Amino acid sequence: MISEMDPSQFTIEIERAPGVAFVRCRGRLVAGVRDSFYTEVRQLIPDTKRIVLDLTDLTHMDSMGLGTVVRLYVSAKSAGADLELINIGKRVRQILGVTGLLKAFEMIGDQGIRMP
Fold first, then answer.
1. Confidence (pLDDT) at 6
2. CB of 54 within 8 A of CB of 29?
3. Rounded distance between C-alpha atoms, residue 54 and residue 66, angstroms
4. DSSP string, 35-53
5. Mean pLDDT along residues 13-32
6. Radius of gyration of the chain (CA)
7. Mean pLDDT of 42-69
8. What distance in Å separates the CA atoms of residue 96 and residue 107, rounded to the nearest whole number?
9. Rounded to an integer, what distance in angstroms lies between the CA atom of residue 106 and that of residue 33?
10. Could you tell me if residue 55 is left (phi over 0), alpha (psi between -120 and 50 degrees) or otherwise beta?
11. Which has more confidence, 109 or 46?
């Protein structure tokens, strides 16, 4: 399933496998797209115990985008699911580090991940 909110700004592609959903993020996760992103990923939580956000192609995240990722993390944990981040770029890693959130998220390396 592909969701395109504004191709010049931000897109996601969701692939599902048993018990896991991979969400590939591309572009800029900023204020104008955060609600659509949250709604789409939040719908995965009741049926999915593990959600992996692949940030390989995420070029920018502002404070509203970061807040949306935190909301998804809290929603997932409340429902007994895991939200993991992979392929975190330098800029996003800096934002997570400055805010003290780097340790809060489960981050996994490129090795050992089975993506559909």
1. 43
2. no
3. 14
4. HHHHHHHHTTGGG-SEEEE
5. 93
6. 13
7. 93
8. 11
9. 24
10. alpha
11. 46
What's the burial of 116, exposed, middle or buried (CB within 10 Å: 0-12/13-18/19+)? Answer: exposed
Task: Give 72-111 pLDDT, tens digit per residue.
Answer: 999 999 999 999 999 988 888 888 888 888 877 766 654 4
Residue 14, token pair as written in the block: 């969701």
What token pair was written down for 32?
């104008």
- Residue where the block lists tokens 């997570």: 96
Q: Say if residues 28 and 59 touch (Cβ distance below 8 Å).
A: yes
For 53, the token pair is 């956000």
C-alpha distances (whole Å) from 116 to each of 13, 62, 73 are 12, 29, 22
- What is this structure's pTM? 0.82
Take residue 3 and report the two structure tokens written for it.
């969701």
